[in-house]
Amino acid sequence: MILFCSHLQHDLTRALAQSSYSGWRFTLKQDPGKLLSGASGQGRRGIPGVLRTYLDFEKPVAEIEAKIDELQALAEASGADAISQGVELSRLKTKAESQLAAIYAKLEPFQKAQVARHQDRPRFRDYVAALVTDFIELSGDRNYGEDAAILGGTGKFLGRPVVVLGHEKGRTTQERLKHNFGMARPEGYRKAVRLMDLADKFGLPVVSFIDTAGAYPGIGAEERGQGEAIARSTERCLTLGVPMVAVIGGEGGSGGAIAIAAANKVLMLEHSIYSVISPEGAASILYKKKEGDEPKADRVREVANSMRITAQDLLALKVIDAIIEEPIGGAHREPGAAIASVGAAVAASLDAFSGLSRTELRHQRRDRFLAIGRFEDGAAPFA
Fold first, then answer.
1. Averaged pLDDT for residues 340-353
2. Whether the predicted model's global pTM rises above the 0.85 cut
């Protein structure tokens, strides 16, 4: 099934209004779309001067939107007739939206991988800023040190006390280096275990956000027990006596993702990916002819299209439980709308588990993972 929420306009560069929680429905005290867009209601995508990043398959839309920007600038400079300009702008905007919807309705897995990695998709800090109040970040693994690739702490998720944690990739070059591009070291996963221990002790639900290419494969990380740390974190997810909901918001890579995604319910954004290895890594293993050669782009595309990495395929395989619909053009075009949809879906999921005992929660989680890939005779997808 597809979970969705009405598209609210947000701008993640401005402070969002605090939210109030009632069941799984929530309302913002101020329309965040107006914080920057004013009466136009266009949000951040409608602001002149905002640098847009287009993927290669979005070229037709890029050309139309370039014309829109040019026409708007010309109208402002020359004072041309507002009515005629408005009609033409409306026509071009409608054409761009139609083109965008047509493109995103038939994305192939390789293209979805590009969308999942888009630099403007919501990050962990964006979700926290919009959905969590009274957030107190907790740092360190109480063993070796701090790892900024995984962040977490306590707060109120739409009014509900929770422990929230997730991967943070960062946006600027400096932030990406600080957060190691979202690739966690052992201390990051041990910090996650510490946060889950805290949640279990005080009866707080756990909400996790996954967006990583995988755990960091450096020598130092291996020396400090990377594999063991991932296994311990995965184990702690499975043994929690409180509800846990995981959201795959970008890319979910290998054990680095499952370490904080072994939840009672796993939600996945429509254009995210989730796999045991990246398409590039798989293509390198399958097609690398000699040391130093990189697989060609068409090989990566071929492998990506064969790996079943999309939300739609994984839902059919019972790897995930539900898909969260993204705005037309992906979460990077309307991040606020995507965040609102995620908030509604997570709140609904937490409500569904609120009446279960600790034992029932563990059994539900166990049965959920044991059911992956199990089908009645003749009912298996992709057979």
1. 95
2. no
Residue 132 phi/psi, 5° resolution? -120, 125
User: Which residues on neighbouring strands pair with residue 252, listed in sequence order?
Assistant: 212, 274
DSSP 8-state class, residue 32: T
Report the b/e string of 189-221 with b at 16+ CB within 10 A: bbbbbbbbebbbeeebbbbbbbbbbbbbeeeeb
Task: Specify the higher pLDDT residue, 291 or 194.
Answer: 194
Q: Which pLDDT tens digit goes with each residue over 253-295?
A: 889 999 999 999 999 999 999 999 989 888 888 887 655 566 6
Separation between Cα atoms, residue 293 and residue 287, nearest integer Å: 9
Same domain? 102 vs 118: no
Is pLDDT at 128 greater than 90 in this prediction?
yes
Statement to judge: residues 59 and 196 lie in one domain: no
- 23 sits in the region (left: phi over 0; alpha: psi -120 to 50; else beta) called left
Q: Residues of 120-144 as b/e, b for ≥16 C-beta within 10 angstroms?
A: bbbbbbbbbbbbbeebeeeeebeee
Strand ranges for 182-297 from DSSP E: 206-212, 244-253, 265-269, 273-275
**Which pLDDT value is given to residue 185?**
94
140: left (phi over 0), alpha (psi -120 to 50) or beta: left
Do 252 and 312 belong to one domain?
A: yes
**Which residue in 133, 119, 223 sits closest to 171, CA to CA?**
119
Residue 165 burial (CB count, 10 A): 27
- Of 192, 326, 327, 167, which Cα lies nearest the Cα of 257? 167
Q: Are residues 122 and 222 in the same domain?
A: yes
Q: How far is CA 64 from CA 4, 60, 329, in A?
A: 28, 7, 14
Instruction: Return the half-sphere exposure (C-beta side, CA atoms, 13 A cut-off) of residue 173.
Output: 0
Taking CA atoms, 156 is separated from 27, 77, 136, 166, in Å, by 15, 48, 10, 15
